[in-house]
Structures are given as structure tokens and as C-alpha cells.
Known about the structure:
Number of helices: 20
Shape: globular
Mean pLDDT: 78
Largest sheet: 2 strands, antiparallel
Number of strands: 2
Amino acid sequence: MVEFSTILAGFGDVFTLWNLAFVLFGVVVGQFVGAVPGIGPVMAMAIAIPFTFGLDTLPAIAFLVGVSKGGLVGGAVPAVLMNTPGTPDAAATAMDGYPLARQGKPLKATKMALFSSVTGDTFSDIVLITVSAPLAILALRMGPVEVFGLMIFAFAILSGLIGNSLMKGVIAAAFGLLCSMVGADPENNTPRLLFGYWQNYDGLPLASVAIGMLAISEILRRLSQITGKMQSAVEVIDTGNPDDRRVTWAEYWSCRYTMARGAVIGTILGALPGIGSTAAAFMSYASAKGASKEPETFGKGNLHGIAAAESANSAVVGANLIPLLTLGIPGSVGAALIISALMIHGVQPGPLLFENQGRLIYGLFGAMIMANLMNLWIGQLGLRFWIKVVSAPESIIFSSALLLCIVGVSMATGGIFGVAIMLIFAGLGYLMTSFGYSVVIFIIAFFLGPRFEMSLSQSLALMNGDWTRITNYPVALVLMALAGCSVFWFSTSARRSQT
Length: 499
């Protein structure tokens, strides 16, 4: 168990001007990129990772967390004003936010989204701080066989939940594992799949693969869709009534049960790898509509619809870090990017993280709480400014992002070879997305590949190559059985939906 003095020291590390400045900067950047349709916090995090290389670990990770949290708040702005979600999670917010804006209440809708988002996010952070350390102690009792079973189960869940096809999900995961094998064998240090380039001996650069697949491929896709002059027709209607520009305490308090339900749904789903904030937002919206005495008002500008969607999708952010910090398994693309940033700074996520880096982790928890407060403050000050941001031409935004990606990867990998790898995986990401293969599953499998391979080798050694001995490991047996049941369930569900 982490000592209380370590916990206090970790929380105290946040309260320096340097660290708080990076949290604030991350929140501002996150809200900005969330407000611009098509960019999103994931792309911003992917671009920012190489630029955090020269920072200490805490301000670097705190900055990325601030971008992630701020992006969810910013994503609600174009969803409310333009019916064009800045992030996929805000699609449910648009269902009631846009009709409310058309009624002359855009600021009321965006402020309700802000308050609900901060409420759900804070709830999930408290759960993360409370349960992550005990879960890490439990995870330490898991041996290589149990870890292997857990990763099989995680891949089965991810393949079934992300994307429209279980088979395509499995193929994407297998391709990610294959790419992770480039370089030296983690067990015997034997070189493989080098293709004549000695630079591949240490494996494909994390920054190049992540930015290429997530950021560059999306930039190329968006640039290919630009035809002619880009401009956003945002018509902000003002009724002149001060009540239409604010959310009163009575209105906020009337949504307390809706926000509580959404926060619980988001936290539970966020702790399960692969489900994501978009699914949480729509499940919370559906449950709020089902529990309402006036379900016919949903979709016509009901504040409860905004509260349900935003509290759930923001609660996923903190909960996603539960499997990441305790098991080393990222539950989303954002969590996978945080893993890559931790590894760049020499920190290995997993059960030993609390024992080896307890002060850093509780410093991160403190940064998350401060990011929530800053989200609330910056959101209230900047909502009127973000409304103007949505009119930025996409051609300028994406051209600048492309330049930042090339410069950042060149700095992180030490030369042009990393940029070439990035461009190769940008093309692969573009093709995978075009043919319906999940880039998310590929990235997570790529990050988990070395650990998966090591646990497989250790499991074979422990069982002397006899898989019938897995009966001596009941936890691993149960996890593999759950993986098989998950594959069966997802495949039958897909067949039912097609008939």
C-alpha cells in the first residue's frame, strides 16, 4: 500500500506554478481543439506527445490529461451550435443541444454541457483515486498465465465492441500484434523483421505509429474532402432574455439524478476496455429518456438530455485510467496515448506503478482534480470565444496540424526515419479506416504486443508447453472462458442484427 506521506507529497507536487501552468495550458488547448470540428483531443494529444519529451514526467502527463478533459467540454460547442459534434462523444449532446440553440438559448445549452461534464468527470476521478491502489495490489497477485488470460479477454472485448465487424476487429488486433514484433525479441533479444534497416532494432517508434495512424491519416481524410472555400455558417440566435444565457441553480439541481446516473454509467463503462465515451453517452441518454416523465420532450431541447450525455462521456476519462494504471491495459485511444507518453518518459504502467512511482501517480491524480476546476473556470470565460472558433477554415487548421506532426515526430525519433515510418502508417491508417478496420484496436494491440508476447512465453515455460495444465490456474481459465463467451456473443449478435 502506498504510504500516506507519499500521497501527500504527490498531491503537493501539483501546486507549483510550473505544473499548474501546464494543466491550464492543456485545458485551453483541449477546449480549443474540441471546439473545432474534426480535430478533437485525441489528434491534439498525438501531436503534442513528441513536444513533451523535454519536460519532466508530471507536467507532461498533466498537460495531456488537461487536453483530454478540455476536449470533451469543447466538443459540445459545435454540437450545440452547428449540430456538428466536435468529438464523437458529443453526438448525443447535439440531440437536445442543437434544438435548444435554435430556440435562442445557445449559452444555456453550452453552460449546461459544461456543468454536467465537470460533474461527471469529478465523480469518475474520485472513483479512480479510491479504487486504483487496491486494484493494483490485487493485480500484483496475478502471474504470467493470469496476465495472458486477461489480455486474451481484453482483445476479445475490444474486437467485439469497437467497430461493426468482429472479424475485422480480430484482424486489426492481429495486425497490431504483428507490427509490435518488429525489432528485438523481448525474451531472447534476437533481431527479426528488420527489413534491412538497423533503425528497426528497437522496434517501430511509438510516436511515429500513433501519430501516423491517428492524426495524419485523419488529416489526409479531412483534406481530401475539402472542395472549394471552407466556411462555417453559424447563426447565433439571441432572444435578449438574460435567463436564456445562464443555467440557474434550480435548473442544475433538477438534473442531479440524471447527472448521477450518467456519471455512474460512464464510470462503469470507462473501466471496461474498449467501450468508450460515445457508447456511454448514448446509453446514459437512453436511460434518462426512459426514466423521464416527459420522454416526448427529449430531442426538442431538454436540459436533461444534455446533462445525461455530457456527464456520462466525461466520466469515462477518469475511469479509463483504472485499467491503465492497475493492469497496464489502455481502455481507449486517449489512454493508449498516455501509456506511450509514460513509456517515452521511462515509466512502465502496470501493477508495480504504485509501488515504484507512487508519488508521480498521486501527483497525476492531483492534476486531474485541478484540470476539472480549470475546465469549469476556462469554460465559463471562454464559451463566447469558442463560438467564434468553430468558424475557422479547415484548410488552415489541418495544414498547420500536418506541419506540427512532421516537426514533432522528427524531434521525438531523432531524424527523418521516424517521419518516414509515420507517413507509412498514415497510409495504412487511411486504408484501414476506408475498409472498416478499426485503427483503435490496432493501436491498443500494438502497445500491448511486447507484454502479450512476454506473458505468452512465460506461460509456456511455466506449463512446459502443455496447455492442459492451465487447469491449475483457475483465474486464467475463467478469463479465457469469458473471452470465448464474448466472441460467441458478439458473433451471434452481429448475425441477429443482419437478419
